[in-house]
């Protein structure tokens, strides 16, 4: 039978149907959980969704039942046997239900199942108070849809705005006996803001109460929410026992901040702050770490680190960028550390830059500064530098360009030491590109003039100038062939190339050195037009560079191997030098630059870069790496590095870096560098992590050289170096905030961070 009743409650229309709709009784237990990897996906508490009613008005209730009894005098409608009630997004399944047509209240006895699309509930009974617009369920088990939160409650009440739990538990663990849970007198969960509040709450770990708080605010989804993040606990020889407790501020959808007090037993209390923001035109970040007084030092000086980064796009042509970092003293990074600079960094770079870009013009205005950590020659600040590059191509294919630059340099330590430089460089290029070959011819002239402080000691003159023509020609062949090996087809490319470069010699000893240094002589570097960065030194050249690069590809065009080899032959000595004779070229040929890269399989890679001196028959520089890489959780890299004649001292190191998934629950990370010259380990790290569905714990231990820069200034000829040892323990509760950094990211905090060494074209 079917009737429509007029209601005066929160539901205006009620549709009732009595049918023999199967025999699906409400169950106290749900279907078995489904396991995916470590974590089971709990089965929904609603055994199966209620079939929707066709053409049901928006403000109507649909009811199905095996039978119904409607009393016209009391206005009570009683339903029994497989009762299903559907109103809006809310669904109720029970054995017996009563609906008061006058008040709109609903009462259901016996086992019930209820959902409103946000929460699913199994309970002993159900009561809807239409006046309060709230449903009450007692003896309830609940589960949040999508959030993964679940628990039990003595009384659970639901309104359109929130879920209120009395005498309840809360957890995101899927197991019946959760690893962690909150037990609280009252828990309120907002459906709109996706966060929860608990009063008189106990935090239980493995069934044991470990923390009581009168009030707790916690997230129930991955959305951002202000509150405490989980602490990090460490211990080291230099800092002693450490504990860091961050507090996160969700200021706005495009803005947040983190304040993290960090207590170090040997040094004191440090305050760390981070502020991030984002807009349609750009974004940035501010960081500050401040230690008022370091208890481990005899002085009462404060120690701090600051950092600013901002990127802005003002229009289609104009962009700006700011990136700057500073520390209070040279040993700050070594003693206290930072996420924004490595402990092995010897300098900090700061720049402010604005760019104007069109199809023909590129204009850059910038200021830059270097802060050197240690007893090194003080660098010059560039305050400011304006450069432009203009280019166009005529109908004959000739490309004309003009590069200009105006720079002002100031010594960081000596205010009277400054210089202004103006540079103009017109150039004409003609390039031909064909499938089988390509070549480039260019002719240019560079004129540079300085206004600098004259210094008799270093030989600088007051207004030196320099004009240098440049002639360069480079040609390449593009050869290809297909071949078969062991029944598999491959494709090989061979690209031999030759370059001639001529720059006459000019005496440049009267020019100070403000932004020039020697560049790396790798395979690509041997084909550059200049040996020095900057413009203070332009090396004379009369030379030919000869080289070739060959690659092998499989049938899917995946590069399997690459070998590159090059060498420069000098027709004349290159007499231009920086600070001493070591930067001049007094031989008839350069070191051989050899680079090899191999994809041995889908997981194995080999990389090598060597610079070999043919005159001395020895390797000047080499870097070799063998890596097994399955994914970010499974990689092992073996490396060897060798450098000769670095301040009359050779460097030779062995390295091992690894991240291995020992089992679905156990992961390990390791970092180790061994100094073959001094027979010692310079840097070592071992981390072990256990992960479960809803919690993880990470143990790590390290041993590294203590890079005490200020001590080296006092006693540069020190005996055995000092080492710093430390351990760290980090407990991660999934569902209440966690550290999302992987074990691979941890290796970046070591003295020598992980670097992916392979650049095959895939």
From TrEMBL:
Keyword rRNA processing: no
Source taxon at top rank: Bacteria
Function: Together with LptE, is involved in the assembly of lipopolysaccharide (LPS) at the surface of the outer membrane.
UniProt protein name: LPS-assembly protein LptD
Gene: lptD
Signal sequence, renumbered to the chain: 1-26
Classification of source organism: Bacteria, Pseudomonadati, Pseudomonadota, Gammaproteobacteria, Alteromonadales
Places the protein is found: Cell outer membrane
All copies of domain LptD C-terminal, residue ranges: 302-672
InterPro entries: LipoPS_assembly_LptD, LptD, LptD_C, OstA-like_N
This protein's UniProt keywords: Cell outer membrane, Membrane, Signal
Annotated source species: Pseudidiomarina aestuarii
GO terms (BP aspect): Gram-negative-bacterium-type cell outer membrane assembly; lipopolysaccharide transport
Family per record: Belongs to the LptD family.
Keyword presence, Signal: yes
Domain Organic solvent tolerance-like N-terminal: 63-140
GO cellular component: cell outer membrane; transporter complex
